[in-house]
Q: What sequence folds into this?
């Protein structure tokens, strides 16, 4: 949730005789302040002598006095805030007097600040009759950075005047300065930015200043709005920090983003001001009811299914539905993917979608199990899920939950010791998959298996290749080096047992798509899986490079 | 030997020859009888491409369509009608024109069709049931009911064709099909395991090489091993391999059963194939039994070695065919083959009826009796032959003879015309002309007699007499012409003398008259000249005149005097010429040219003939036929058999070869 409070600031411009301090690079003073900061925070003649070897005692004392006059330290030599900055930046004030062109503004968030200063003359020009009291006085002793020239920093030390009242010559200005205060709960952003332009030397120079952070309780402020102006848009759930809304009429962009932009009108923020027409952007939204959640989930699924002309297996649909609902506000309501037949019925009037769903199921190399064809409820507890292990010995079906990596490997290797094993998976990439690979290798090692080779996709970068090698101890190979231009959709696992003929598994998904529910998994940890159907193949059924690997150990 | 009569033909039939060949042996031959009625029903293997099969509607039906197997489309129609889904593989180009009504009527979600080139079979797969329709080169009439394991394997084949090898796809919508790219499969379709009951392979698969009893090979692929029976289509090729099979005890037979390549034995298989695919179907025991029954039928054709023609006829009957190696197609046995031995040249006209070919065309290998016929060609005038030189010489002699006769006759005609002119011009010639007419008449009669014959018909001796007689007549004509010319000349000369005398007298008279006039004139001029001389003298002495006047007068007198001198001189020449004319005597000058028309003397006689006696040929022309020459050969051409005897005699006399005329000679 993000709010942007925008304020148009008034810019005042006048010319005034002033004593300014321009912060310029002075390494010797930087060294003095640095040594002072490191030695207790006091500038002493000894510190000066240490920083500037060769100076006599009198000269060192003069330097201390000079630092004092520059406000780098107080009368006792203690470093001021300015002195601390000099120690950090080596930029020290250089004093000068003259007539300056000043642009100023004021706001509770900003204070009274000089936006920019330009030298006009070294002396007064004598137009005393036009001098009047300045409309706005800047904070004194505060260093400013020009908003049009970020490299220029300065302090206004004083307005020297005989009658002790500062005088200035007002200059009409067309400058504009906008202040935007952003409060973003999602990213923890709470800062102020200035925009607009200043009319410097007859040209309009854009305002460009780094954001400035405002100390305020973000969620405290958002809560005030959630239980205030947001109520008319939906019910705020403070536990999930989202606005529960009805699905009917929900725009597509909000269905996909789970966010809504809301106009909350005028707001007051204590100590900081009043704003009109405030708009809250990216207000988290979620379904108000289970029915809303189901409609929402199916609408998102429908949108994906109608986009693109790709065939989707039932596993693809189940995975897509999971992706579209899991880790979203919909998950809480456990939306249900209809069974295959019901899903097809939804597309009876869209034969292109119908056949892209029906054909992969009807013409699958492995007939689908009733569990795969049945409705699927996302986010249901493990106990509510259908049995995750089904199939005959030559087909392994893994649906969503339950198995550990050890269990999977037991099924895939037949519980026998394996001499060599080849994993052909185009997406052995990403932190989670590499962690799964490590778990995979560990589980194999516990079985006493020797070596694991990995062939992975062409997109996997060199660093990942190196990581895989670190996990398996074997140099991985990319698809192009093994298959050339031949494309393989499925994953494969080629198993060369210690005894008996080699065999392979053709898998509809990656065995690395396994995630623990929590913590660091071990081979026996039950994992969350994507649907995976593995079909056992004899060696001659495998693609040729895998046959070669099985017989010779190389592709 | 009887000599024919009439015109000698350009071709003449020979006497003919016949041979019985029933004992002739054929090395290798396919004996092919007309097809027997067949198609036995043997349960799981039936020739039935029409009947719908019982596919369950509660399972998606996978069908491979074929135009030759209506049963598949009808089954698909039934499944769709029952609310089921059908996945179809159709031949390339299918659905491009009018759609079958079952497709038009199908709902969009009832039928999904993909097109594939050259599917090896037609099929229906539904649940655990399946049927394949097989033929010798792809889909065909034989329906094989599949076992459950075959159905599962066939499903994988269907999936391979559907997901990997199909080209495009469509479903019915608005009574039409809109073909579109098929898209990629969402998974890899695995290859079939080696032991799969049904396996798809690209290209042609061989039949099993071991433990086969009967092999049916419609593509003529021969097994590598010995079999009890081999069904292979008859051909003119491959007999050598079949001979080896027969020697090894194989019964090589054929009948077009419409089956795909298949084999029975320990590993009974059917392998429907086309140029692109083969489908290897390992048969179950009951399928193998059915196939064995089918392949145990009586064949339509058998391959035999070293068989007599009479034995082949006994196996084939009257309507069978035999196919020998190297022949493009099988032929029926021939009871009698008539062989044309061509045209045989006869050595002489007399030998034509008994002339036979020197070589005999071989009869066809399937001829039970051979009969040869031929034609005899007589010796003929070769192309380019021309008349013999003897003929040319006689023809030239005849031509010259006729020309001389004609010339002499024309001369007499001119003489006759001349006679009329002379008679009208010279009355004095009336009497001699009577004599000339009599001579002319006599000569014309003689020439007319000469024109009735020619030297060539007279022969060498007669020709000489004819030529002598003609020479005499020509001499008489010449003499007559000369006499007439002389008479004419004399008459013309007399006429000319008279004319010249008249002109001479006339010229003298005219000169006399001129002489008289000119004499007077010259006297007058001479007198005036004297007067001028006097005046000149008087003027020289006249002093009264001025010098200038005197000189002018003197010039004037001189001019006149000069002119008179010239005139007098001219008159004197004229007088002298006329005086000579008067005094000249008459003298005749024969200036008349020779008489016109007939030239006199030797100029009448035509150019001397080359045909003196020495030029007359020594040989007479043949009494029959035409004498020709071709190169160095002298030929005597006759056209009738009746001329044969005389022709042979004349040819012998003239040293010529007796031939018959070509049609163009």
A:
């Amino acid at each position: 949730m993000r709010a942007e409070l925008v304020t148009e600031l008034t810019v005042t411009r006048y010319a005034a005789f002033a004593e300014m301090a321009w912060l310029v690079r002075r390494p010797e003073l930087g060294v003095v302040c640095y040594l002072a900061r490191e030695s207790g925070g006091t500038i002493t003649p000894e510190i000066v002598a240490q920083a500037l070897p060769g100076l006599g005692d009198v000269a060192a004392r003069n330097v201390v006095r000079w630092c004092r006059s520059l406000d780098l330290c107080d009368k006792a030599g203690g470093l001021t805030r300015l002195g601390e900055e000099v120690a950090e930046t080596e930029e020290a004030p250089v004093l000068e007097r003259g007539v300056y062109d000043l642009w100023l503004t004021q706001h509770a968030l900003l204070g009274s600040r000089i936006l920019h200063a330009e030298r006009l003359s070294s002396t007064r020009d004598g137009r005393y009759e036009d001098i009047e009291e300045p409309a706005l006085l800047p904070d004194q002793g505060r260093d400013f950075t020009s908003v049009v020239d970020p490299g220029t920093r300065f302090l206004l030390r004083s307005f020297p005047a005989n009658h002790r009242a500062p005088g200035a010559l007002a200059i009409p200005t067309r400058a504009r300065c906008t202040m935007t205060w952003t409060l973003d709960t999602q990213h923890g952003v709470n800062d102020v930015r200035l925009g607009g332009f200043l009319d410097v030397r007859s040209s309009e120079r854009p305002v460009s200043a780094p954001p400035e952070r405002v100390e305020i309780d973000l969620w405290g402020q958002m809560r005030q709005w959630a239980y205030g102006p947001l109520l008319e848009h939906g019910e705020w759930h403070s536990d999930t920090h989202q606005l529960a809304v009805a699905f009917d009429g929900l725009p597509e962009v909000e269905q996909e983003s789970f966010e809504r932009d809301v106009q909350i009108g005028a707001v007051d923020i204590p100590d900081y001001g009043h704003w009109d027409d405030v708009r809250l952007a990216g207000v988290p939204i979620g379904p108000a009811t289970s029915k809303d959640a189901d409609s929402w989930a199916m609408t998102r699924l429908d949108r994906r299914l109608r986009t693109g002309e790709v065939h989707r297996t039932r596993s693809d649909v189940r995975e897509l539905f999971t992706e579209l609902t899991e880790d979203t506000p919909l998950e809480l309501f456990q939306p249900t993917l209809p069974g295959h037949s019901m899903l097809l019925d939804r597309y009876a009037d869209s034969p292109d979608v119908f056949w892209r769903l029906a054909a992969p199921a009807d013409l699958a190399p492995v007939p689908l199990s009733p569990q795969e064809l049945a409705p699927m409820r996302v986010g249901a507890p493990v106990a509510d899920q259908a049995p995750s292990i089904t199939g005959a010995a030559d087909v392994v079906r893994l649906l969503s939950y339950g198995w550990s990596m050890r269990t999977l490997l037991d099924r895939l290797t037949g519980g026998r010791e394996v001499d060599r094993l080849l994993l052909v998976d185009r997406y052995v990439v990403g932190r989670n998959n590499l962690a799964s690979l490590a778990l995979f290798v560990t589980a194999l090692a516990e079985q006493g298996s020797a070596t694991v080779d990995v062939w992975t996709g062409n997109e996997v970068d060199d660093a990942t290749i190196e990581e895989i090698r670190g996990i398996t101890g074997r140099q991985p190979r990319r698809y192009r080096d093994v298959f050339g231009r031949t494309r393989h959709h499925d994953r494969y696992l080629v198993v060369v047992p210690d005894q008996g003929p080699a065999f392979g598994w053709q898998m509809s998904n990656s065995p690395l798509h396994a995630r623990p529910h929590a913590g660091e998994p071990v081979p026996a940890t039950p994992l969350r899986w994507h649907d995976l159907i593995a079909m056992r193949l004899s060696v001659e059924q495998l693609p040729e490079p895998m046959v070669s690997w099985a017989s010779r150990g190389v592709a | 030997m009887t000599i024919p009569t009439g015109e000698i033909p350009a071709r003449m039939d020979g006497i003919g020859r016949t041979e019985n060949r029933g004992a002739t042996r054929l090395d290798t031959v396919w004996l092919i009888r007309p097809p027997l009625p067949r198609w036995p029903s043997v349960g799981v293997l039936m020739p039935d491409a029409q009947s719908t099969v019982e596919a369950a509607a509660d399972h998606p039906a996978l069908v491979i369509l074929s135009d030759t197997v209506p049963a598949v489309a009808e089954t698909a129609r039934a499944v769709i009608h029952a609310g089921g889904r059908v996945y179809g593989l159709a031949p390339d180009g299918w659905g491009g024109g009018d759609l079958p009504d079952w497709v038009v009527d199908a709902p969009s979600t009832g039928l999904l069709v993909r097109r594939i080139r050259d599917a090896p079979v037609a099929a229906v797969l539904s649940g655990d049931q399946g049927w394949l329709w097989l033929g010798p080169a792809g889909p065909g009439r034989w329906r094989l009911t599949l076992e459950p394991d075959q159905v599962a394997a066939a499903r994988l084949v269907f999936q391979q064709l559907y997901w990997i090898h199909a080209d495009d796809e469509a479903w019915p919508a608005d009574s039409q099909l809109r073909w579109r790219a098929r898209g990629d499969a969402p998974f890899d379709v695995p290859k079939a395991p080696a032991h799969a009951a049904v396996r798809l392979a690209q290209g042609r698969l061989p039949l099993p090489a071991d433990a086969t009893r009967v092999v049916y090979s419609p593509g003529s692929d021969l097994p590598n091993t010995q079999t009890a029976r081999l069904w292979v289509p008859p051909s003119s090729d491959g007999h050598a391999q079949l001979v080896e099979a027969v020697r090894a005890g194989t019964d090589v037979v054929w009948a077009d059963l419409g089956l795909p390549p298949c084999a029975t034995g320990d590993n009974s298989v059917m392998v429907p194939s086309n140029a692109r695919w083969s489908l290897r179907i390992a048969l179950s025991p009951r399928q193998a039994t059915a196939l064995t029954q089918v392949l145990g039928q009586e064949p339509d054709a058998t391959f035999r070695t070293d068989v007599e023609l009479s034995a082949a006829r006994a196996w084939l009957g009257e309507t069978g065919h035999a196919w020998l190696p190297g022949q493009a197609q099988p032929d029926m046995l021939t009871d009698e083959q008539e062989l044309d031995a061509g045209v045989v040249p006869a050595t002489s006209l007399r030998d034509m009826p008994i002339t036979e070919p020197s070589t005999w065309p071989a009869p066809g290998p399937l001829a039970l009796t051979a009969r040869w016929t031929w034609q005899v060609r007589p010796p003929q005038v070769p192309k380019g032959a021309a008349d013999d030189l003897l003929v040319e010489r006689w023809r030239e002699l005849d031509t010259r003879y006729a020309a001389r006769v004609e010339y002499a006759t024309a001369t007499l005609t001119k003489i006759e015309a001349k006679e009329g002119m002379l008679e009208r011009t010279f009355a004095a010639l009336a009497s001699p002309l009577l004599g000339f007419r009599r001579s002319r008449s006599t000569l014309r009669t003689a020439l007319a007699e000469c024109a009735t014959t020619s030297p060539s018909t007279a022969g060498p001796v007669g020709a000489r007499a004819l030529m002598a007689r003609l020479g005499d007549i020509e001499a008489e004509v010449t003499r007559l012409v000369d006499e007439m010319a002389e008479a004419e000349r004399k008459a013309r000369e007399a006429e000319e003398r008279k004319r010249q005398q008249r002109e001479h007298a006339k010229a003298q008279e005219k000169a006399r008259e001129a002489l008289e006039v000119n004499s007077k004139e010259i006297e007058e001029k001479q007198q005036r000249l004297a007067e001028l001389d006097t005046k000149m003298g008087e003027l020289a002495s006249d002093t009264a005149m001025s010098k200038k006047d005197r000189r002018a007068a003197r010039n004037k007198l001189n001019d006149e005097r000069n002119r008179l001198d010239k005139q007098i001189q001219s008159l004197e020449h004229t007088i002298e010429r006329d005086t000579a004319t008067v005094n000249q005597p008459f003298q005749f000058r024969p200036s008349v040219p020779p008489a016109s028309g007939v030239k006199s003397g030797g100029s009448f006689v035509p150019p001397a003939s080359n045909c003196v006696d020495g030029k007359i040929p020594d040989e007479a022309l043949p009494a029959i036929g035409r004498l020709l020459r071709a190169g160095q050969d002298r030929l005597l051409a006759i056209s009738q058999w009746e001329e044969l005897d005389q022709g042979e005699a004349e040819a012998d006399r003239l040293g010529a070869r007796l031939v018959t005329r070509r049609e163009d000679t």
